[in-house]
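Worked problem 6 (solution included).
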Amino acid sequence: MRLELKKNILDDINNDRFKLDLVDSESAKQASFTHYVYNHNNKSADSFKESAVDYLKALLQKEYPNDTITSKVTENALQYLLFNNSNTIPFPAPENPEFKFIDLFAGIGGFRLALQNIGGKCVYSSEWDKAAKKTYKENFGEIPFGDITKQSTKSYIPEEFDILCAGFPCQAFSIAGKRKGFADTRGTLFFDIEEIVDKHRPKVVFLENVKNLVTHDKGRTFKTIIEILEKKLGYKVFSSVLNTLTHSNIPQNRERIFIVAFDPKQVINFKQFQFPEEIELTKTIHDFFEKGKQEDRYYYKKDHKYYPELIENMKSKDTVYQWRRVYVRENKSNACPTLTANMGTGGHNVPLIKDDYGIRKLTPRECFSFQGYPKHYILPNIANGRLYMQAGNSVTTTLVERIAKEIKRVL
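Solution. The predicted structure is:
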């Protein structure tokens, strides 16, 4: 059979012709397909090829219902797609990567962007939020796998990689701690990280979380994490609370806990690791604002019930304010307040500024900029509330990159 292969199959996937809201088995096949396309020229692709071929065969059968789609036809189609997909990824990996990493709880790709910038290649990604998957796919050409708590999702992780990255959600450890002792993390998402580290033994584990993780449950949660990494898994752990404002030349007051753990058997000189020092803040908030008048929807109209309160308290164009339900809070440091995941959920936490055209909220693009994302990072056509949430949930990419450079130096 001679198959005239349509050129837009991969474009159809990227343009959501094949939706993300599929059952888990289909979603895994879709993720496998994009992972294979991205990793086909290295050994990591072995984890994805079988499922990728099955998925493409099903796509072709849908495109050509009157033809018999053989394995040979599918392989030819796959090679065609690989050849024609080389220049379609906005943020591709380096051609000659210096190390490999996996991206768990990947969000919109903050860790990935940072580690790619210093020569790393992502060989596996996982994220459960559908809107975040869309943003991730738009920028990296890859659909992350889904729920990492499922063994079927973990089964696609390549055997070998150098760094495990995870900005994992903080679930309470207190119940497990009281019942099982502080060496038991079952029932928490950290358990899944522990399980993956135990199986694959990466050289480095690179974690990020909210500052309050250190004091959560009277310090027991943090103690559990360190105890698991050091005593159970045998890693050497470094941790520090760093602020975007002081460590990445971005005027956002954002403190986060970073944990870096080395396998001493693979990284002999792990003691050389140091977290980056503070650097001078040379940029101002104006470097991150969009120029000119923004869309009307971002501005408060004079008939808004809170407008009198806003106009009374927002006098300066050189600082960022925040509406706290019933009052306006000014940031005396002339920096952006911490961007939060609940920005856009009613809008009350979206930072406010005064510009030449009135009083308005920061745009999603400005929030992404305050997290270190470049101007050409693609924001997909989804609700602004989801984009605000994605920015608030993300890591500051430039800060992660500075830490990653120190990890790379030790490696």
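Discussion: The chain is about 35% helix and 15% strand.
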